[in-house]
Fold each of these.
Amino acid sequence: MTTHVERLVQQLDDATGPSYDARAELIDMGADALPALIDGLPSLGGFGQLTAIEVFEEVGDPRCGPALIGLLNSDNPTVREWAAMALASLDVEGAAEPLRRAHRACLEHATPPDWTEPDGIRWALTELGARTPVVPPLTARLRATAADDVPRWPSAHFTDIINDLADHAQVILYSQFWQLDAGREYGIPGTTLDWELDWTAPWEHLVEESRTWSLREASEAPVGDGIFVAPSWIDRSDLHPER
C-alpha cells in the first residue's frame, strides 16, 4: 500500500503543478520524508530528481549524501550538476572523490569546461576544499570585500584582472556583471560578445585567445560605482589534471 509520503515523492515528476505542492510538503516534513524520498529517487525522471535535490538541500540532512553521490552517474547532465552542487552545499563527507570522478568523466567526454556541468563540479570541489583556484597576487589584491564572500572585482579593474590572470597562465571562461545599489545586488547585462575556444588547442594558445576575447569584452563592459565583475577561470590542471 502506497503511503502518503510515497505519493508525494511520485508527484515530484509532475511539472504541471502537483510537483510544487509535493515539494513544499516534503520540505515541511523535514527529515521524516528522507527515507521515502531516497528510496523513490531511482524511479523519478529528470524533473523529479531535480526537485528531489531541492528538497534535500532545503532539509539539509547529510543522510541524503549517498543518494546525491549516486546521482552523479545520472544520464541527465543537469541532474549531475545539481547533485554535485548540493553535495558541496550540504558539506557531505566523502563527496570529494566521487566529484573528482565526475569531473574526469566530463573530461573524458570532452565536455567543454565552460558548460554548466563541469563548472558546477569545479565549484563543488572548491567549496569542499578539494580544489584550489589559482588567484594571482594582483587579482587577489583587487578583489572587493563582500559580506557573502562571493568573489567579485570592481569593473574598472577588469582589464588589469584579465592580464594578470593570463600572465599567470589562466584561461577566463566567461564573466558576469553585478550592480550593488543600496544594499541590493542584481545581475546586469554585460556585452554582446560571444566566443568559443578550441579546447583541443595547446594551453598557451587558449590563454592568449581568452585574453584577446576578454579584453574586447572589457572594452565594452559596464563601468561605474557599484558595478562589479565576476570572471570565471580555470587552470591548466583543470583541463589536464595529469600534468
Amino acid sequence: MGKRSGKKSELLLSPISGHPSPISTSAEATPSAKGAGFKNVKKITGSRLWMRFDRTGQSEILGCDKSMIIRQTGIPVRDLRVQGPIFSQSSNIIARDKAIVINLENIRAIVNGEEILILDPLCQEVLPFIDQLRQHVPSKTNTGADDGQNQAAESPSQAEHELPFEFKVLEIALEVVCSSLGSNVTDLERDAYPVLDELAKNVSTKNLERVRGLKSILTRLFARIQKVRDEIQHLLDDNEDMSNFYLTRKQIQNQQCDASMASNTLSIVPAGANSRRLNSKRYQRGTGSIATSIYSYNDVEDLEMLLESYFKQLDLIRNRILSVREYIDDTEDYVNIRLGHKRNQLIQLQLILTMASFAYALDVLICGFFSMNIKVSLYSTQNLFGPFVGGFLSASMLIFLSLLAYAKWNNLVDL
C-alpha cells in the first residue's frame, strides 16, 4: 500500500491585530485536503519566525523555512544567507527582480510591491520598526464605496507624488536605524564628556579604564554608522541599482507591455496602400512608447532624494561621533603632556639627587680615609677637627652648587 504524500504548508502561529499576541507552539489540527480525517500540522524543522505585513496594514506571524521564503519571494539563496546570524551586524540593501532585501542593523526584511516579510518580529530591536509600520501604513477599514470616493477626491498631484509601498518601507527602516544610531551617539556623548573632563583633572587608573571602555564603544558604533552610510553611498553612485528598486513601476510596465503585446497580436493589419502608412504610424507610436519607458526607467529622482536625505542625516551623526573621538584624542594628548611634564620633573629630581650624592660622596671619602688606623701628624694638632670638617662640608656644598648652576645653565633643570 503506497504512502500518501502531502505538500508542506506554512504554519500560521498567530495573527496580529494591533500588537503581537503570545505565540502558541503546540501543534494545531487542520482538516486534510483529501478528507482523510485530521492531520497535525507541526512546526517545520529549521523554520524561523517571520511577520507578513501587507500594504493595507494587515499582519500575521508565520513560521517558515528558507525554501518557503525563496518560493514566495523569488530571491536567490545567497540573499537569504545575508539575513542569517553570521551577517547580523552587516548592512545591505539589495534589489532583485521581484523583491528588495533589507539588512540594516537588526532589521532584516524582504519587501515586494504588496507586502513585507520581517525576520524575528518579536525581537526588542525590531519592535520599533513594526510600530512605525503600523503608524505609517494604516489598515484599510473603509468600504468599497468609501474607497471609490477617496480615490475620486484625491488630486492627480497627490497620486503622482505618493511613494510606492517599497519606498515607504525603506524610508521607515532607514528612519528607525538613523534614530537608533542617533540615540546611541547621544548616550555616548552624555557619558563621554564628564568622564573625559574628570580624566583631565585627575589621571587615575579608574578614569583611564572608563575612557578605554568608551573608546571601544565608540569604535563599534562608528563602524555601524559607517556600514550604513557606505551602503547608501554605494546605491547613490549607481543609477541602475536605484532603478531596480522601483518594484511597483516595473510591475506596471510589465503589465502594460503584456497588454500591448496582446493588443498587437489581436490587431488585424489592413492591406493595400494604407497599410504602409498605418505601419509607419504604429512604428512611431511604438518608438515613442519605448523612449518614454526608457526615460521613466532611468528616472530615479524620488529614490535619490530619499537616500540623500538619510545620507545627510548619517553624515551629521558621523560628524557628531567624530567630534567625540577628537575630544577623546585631545584629552589623551593633554594627559600625555601632563604625564610627560611629571616625568621630566622626576628626571630633574633624580639629577639633583645625583649631584647631591656626588658632593656627599667626597665627604664620605675623606671620612673613610681618616678613619683608618694610620699614624698622621694631624691627630696631635689641637682644635683642628671642627675647622677641618666644616671646610670639607663647605667644599662639598660648593661643588653641589657648581653642578646645579651648570645644569641650570644648560637647561637641564627647571628651577
Amino acid sequence: MAALNPSTIRRLQKLQQVPSVWEGDRRPMAPDSSPTIDPDEETKGDCVIWVDGSQGMVRAMDMVSPDTGPEVIVRTLLKAMEHPQSPAPAVRPQKIVVKDREIQFFLRGVLQDLGITIDYVPDLPLIDEIFRGLHEVAENRPPNLPPEYAESLLEKAYQIWDDSPWEILGEHQIISIELNEWDLKELFVCTLGKLGMDYGVLFYRSLDSLKRFRQRVVSDRSFEDLEEAFLGQDCLFVTYERNKDDEDEDDDDDDYGEIVIGNLPASEIKANFG
C-alpha cells in the first residue's frame, strides 16, 4: 500500500478534521501467562491500536498476524476515522504521533493528501497505560482448567478419543451415570461423532436440559437461535478438533481429499473443555 486510491482519499477528505492528536502503535501481545488447557500453546499476534489522545478513548484496535506488513496499520487507522469502536463521530485528526520511525515514514507517504501531520515521539503514555492494563488482565485470568485436575482431565479426554465411543453410540442414545456426589444425582451422557462431523462427549446435569436443547434445535432455524440454544445448555463437555500445527498434513484423507478427523491419532487432536 504505497498510497491510498483516489476514491478513498476523496472519501476521507470529506470527513471533518478536528484539532485532536491521535496516538498509534503496533505491538506484539505477550502470550497469556496463565495456565491453559494445552500448556505448550501460545497466543501470538500483534495488536494495532489507535487512540484519541485528546479524548482519552480507543477508536480502533485489531489483532493481526506478525507476518503482515505495515498496511494493516493504515487499515486500522481508516477504521478509526470512519468507523470508530467508541461512541464517537467519524472524523479526521489534525495530528498523529507514533514512536516508530518506520511507521512514521510509511504513514507520511500514504496519508500525504489528507492534511494530517505525522510526528515521531519517544513515548506514547496513553497506549502504554492501555497495554499495561491488558497485560494485567492476562496475568490475572483464571486457567481454563483447575491446575490440580488439568493433567488428569487431559489424560481421560485422550483416552476417550482412543476409545471412540461414538463409533458404537449414536447421538440419540443416552447413557445415565449415577453419581450421588457434588450435589449431582446423575449425569446424562451423549456422544458426538457418529455422523463424522463433530466429535465429543456431553454430560448433561439433567434429562430435562437435554430435552429442552434438542427441542430448540428442531424448532429454531436461524444460526443465532441455534448458537443461543447451544450456549444455554446445562452441561459439561469435551470436544475435539485437529491441531492447527497438523492441518497441512495430507494423511487420512477421504475419497474427496478432505481430512477425516475421526481417523487421526490422539497426538494430532486437541481437546476442548467447557
Amino acid sequence: MSISRPIKLAGLTMFLIVMIWVMAYPIARYLIPSDTFNEPFEPVYNGLNVLFTALAFGGVIITLAFQAEESRIARREEIERSIFELFQTFTSLEFQQVKDGAFRALLTGIQHREYAEYLASRLFVVEQLPFPPACAKTLRTLDAEKQNLDDQQIIHADRADRLMLDNILNFFAMLAQRESSATVIKHCDFAYDWWRPALWIIAELQQRRHANSEKIRMYCKNQLVTTTLKALDKVYGHAPLNSSREVWEYITQHPKLLDFGLDPEFNDYLSTPETSA
C-alpha cells in the first residue's frame, strides 16, 4: 500500500508550521514596541502555545489526508478485485456456453447483414424486426443441435443464442465501468480483440436505428453498445472510431471478418450518410 503522498504532505505541513513559528518572533520584535517583551516568560509561553496549537491543527490535516489516501487505495483494490472476479466468470466452463451461443449469433450476423440488423433491432423494446427466414440455414450449419429443427423451432433456439449475446454485452458493459483500472484489465485476457469487430457491427447498426427513430429515442433509454466499445477501445489502446465511415472501413477491411465470410452488403454502408459513432 503506497502512502508516500500523505507522508510528503505531513512533512511539508510540519515544516511550514515550524518555519512560520520561527519567523514570527523576530518579525514581531521588529514590528511591536520593545516594552511588550519585557516579561520573558509570557512571550515564550504564548509562543510555545501557538506552536503546539498549530502542530495539532496540522495533525488534523495530516490525519484527513491519510484517511483520504486509504479510501482511494481501498476503492482501487475493490475495483481490481471485481475485475479478477469478472475474469474468473469469463473463463469458467459455465460461461463458455454463453460465449459459444453469443458468438454463433454474431457469426450469423457477420455472414448476413439482414440478421445483423435483426440483432440490433432486438436490443430495443420497440420497432423490432422479424426473424429473417433466409438465415435459418446458416444457423443450422453453425450449430449441430439445430440441424433437425423446423423453422419455428429455429426461431425459438435462436432466441436462446440472442439472450446469451445480451449476457456478453452486459458483461463487457460492466468491464467498461472499470476503465479506471485499465492496467489490470489489460493483464487479463478477455479476448476483446476477437469480440471487437463483430460487436462494432451490432453497435453501429444499433446507433443508426437509435439516431433515425424518434420512437426508439423516446422509449429506449438503455446505454448504447457504442459507449461500451469506446471505453474498452481506450483501455486496450485501439485507435478511436469517430464516425460511421471509420467504423465501416474498419469492419469491411478486418481480416478476421473477411475470413468468417463477411456479407458484401455491408459495403453499402460506406456510401450512406454519416452518423456519429
